Amino acid sequence: MYKRQGHDVRLDNVEQTYVDLPVRDELFATLQRGGAVDNFECRLRRADGAIRHAMLSARPIVIDGEPCFMTSVVDITERKQAERHLERLAMTDALTGLANRAHFMAAVTQATAASNDRTQLAVLLIDLDEFKRVNDTAGHDAGDALLCAVAGRLRQALRPGDLVARMGGDEFAVLLTRLPDADALQSILTRIADHLHAPLDYRGRPIESRVSIGVALFPDHGEDVTALVKHADIALYHAKNNGRGRATIFGPDLLESWDRETAMLDRARHVLAQEHPCPWYQPKIALDTGTIIGFEALFRCPTGNGTVIMPADIAAAFEHPELGPAITNQMIAGIIADCTRWRDAGLDVGHVALNVSGADLNDDNFTGHLLERLAQAGLPPTMIELEVTESVFLGRNADRVGQVLHRLSKAGVSIALDDFGTGYASLSHLKQFPIDIIKIDQRFVRDLETDPDDAAIVRTVLNLAYSLGIRTVAEGVENSRQVDYLRAGGCHYGQGYHFGAAMPAATITELLAKQRLASPALK
Questions:
Q1: Reported confidence tier of residue 19, pLDDT bands at 50, 70, 90
Q2: Which of 109, 128, 173, 505 could form a disulfide with 338, with the two C-beta atoms 3.0–4.6 Å apart?
Q3: How distant, in Å, are the alpha carbons of 102, 281, 500 from that of 496?
């Protein structure tokens, strides 16, 4: 027995110093074979009972003819603690304290490898709807508070053992284990929505909290972490594109839709980079005089092989937050260039209508850039008419869209409500937003001669517009009988194949020149 730091240590009980016996046996076996040991890590129990991490190095030596081992012991407890701290930091989101993306991906990999046939796993991707708006209107401190609140609410909504992670930005993820059936998943999704959709009070200011959720199940929707996260992301994309504030479970139909939209977006990127998209123009005719009063600019992209890429070929791109505004910018550039040439040639084009999407109106720079480009070209804002569908008025961005439209209207730009009555029609939109023109959708105009319901709808819209002092345009006019009906009902303008399809700018130049020659008032 000897004394160390005031404690008695019994040398005949030294094997109890090793905390992990298999590790001790591995060390002893190596030494008994006569081998040297370097940087051998183990845990040792100190005489006072404290457990320390140690690194051993040992060599066989001979002392006075007796074989012995010379061993050095280095206490690495603090180093191991620092390593564990760094590992936790590397696997933890600094703001919310949740697991981070790397931790989540590793956990899903481990869970799928250990899963059995009796239970399912579910991967949930959760995205905060309109998080950028919170940052822009309430400040980044409010945004951070919302992220932390979502993290806490997710912990409360889930079961012990379920993993919650922040994947980055405003996206969270959940790994659900031990799911006996689909009913269990639905109850959890309902509980998550109930917790997360409750408003947050931040410094006396209410901040609305709504999320979209995409779900993928193991093994039904993927057998590894890559497939599960991809398919949950596709389901999330579908949830956000179909009203937000909802949960969507992945299915093969979503993958087909995703592939179609991906192909459209890829084609749109190619068009913007390699082709020359431009506006073609469809005439709008005053039904009382038969003269051209303006045009609608429609996206077209003639290609080298003689084909023309149509809007339907890249439909998904128009609502894309980057591609949509990029396409609109090219359209505006083409419209301004064409209108400048027509003005310089002394041709009266009237006005040009341009379709804009929610992605355009949510772009902070859209209004300023449009008015600035018109001013640089010397074109009056009254020459431009913006066509918007009612879908841009939906959701929590309605106030912001309204501000943009009021600013443009005040500058002289006309606002037309496109496809009126086909989806989310609300009479309040006609009062809340600066609507100058209602466009009657072609599906009502097409059969108004034979379908009494369509005819009644058209009459109702015309009467409503007349009462509110709003001008009307009928789309899809294809014959003179429709023209007569619309004119008798008080419709102001018509547009459709009866008057002409969309045409390149050069053809419009010829058309305007002919109208000027045919009209004595313009000579």
A1: confident
A2: 505
A3: 56, 11, 6
How far, rounded to the nearest angstrom, does the alpha carbon of residue 8 sit from its chain's CA centroid?
67
Token pair in block for residue 340: 């400048």
- In a 10 Å sphere around its CB, with 0-12 CB exposed, 13-18 middle and 19+ buried, how is residue 217 labelled? buried
User: Which of 421, 418, 484, 431 minimizes the C-alpha distance to 456?
Assistant: 421
Which ranges in 280-386 belong to alpha helices (H)?
Answer: 323-344, 358-361, 366-377
Position 222 scores a pLDDT of 87
The CA distances from residue 323 to 259, 313, 387, 397, in Å, are 17, 14, 18, 20
160: Cβ contacts below 8 Å, ≥ 6 apart: none
Contact 511, 292 (CB under 8 A): yes
Nearest to 408 by CA among 465, 360, 339: 360
Q: Please tell me the distance from the alpha carbon of residue 160 to that of residue 237, in angstroms, as a whole number.
A: 28
Interatomic CA distance for residues 148 and 170, integer angstroms:
10
Edge to edge, the sheet with strand 51-63 lists: 37-45, 51-63, 66-75
Which DSSP string corresponds to 397-430?
THHHHHHHHHHHHHHT-EEEEEEETSSS--HHHH
Residue 21 is which amino acid?
L
**Burial degree of 313 (CB within 10 A; 0-12, 13-18, 19+):** middle
User: Could you tell me which of 265, 439, 240, 269 has the C-alpha nearest to residue 355?
Assistant: 439
| Mean pLDDT (the chain, rounded) | 86
Beta bridge partners of 418: 389
Strand partners, 165: 99, 173
- On the question of pLDDT at 374 being above 90, the answer is yes
Can you name the residues that pair with 296 across neighbouring β-strands? 282, 353
**194: three-class secondary structure by DSSP:** helix
For helices 101-114 and 225-241, give the axis angle rounded to 10 degrees.
120
Instruction: State how far the Cα of 241 lies from the Cα of 217, in Å rounded to an integer.
Output: 21
> Is a pLDDT exceeding 60 seen at residue 395?
no
Measured distance CA(415)–CA(410) in Å, rounded: 11
Amino acid (one-letter) located at 476 = G
Do residues 314 and 324 make contact, with C-beta atoms less than 8 angstroms apart?
Answer: no
Q: How confident is the model at residue 518 (pLDDT cuts 50, 70, 90)?
A: confident
Q: 187-240: per-residue pLDDT in tens?
A: 899 999 888 888 777 777 777 778 899 999 998 898 889 999 999 999 998 888
- Reduced to 3 states (helix: H, G, I; strand: E, B; else coil), residue 85 is helix
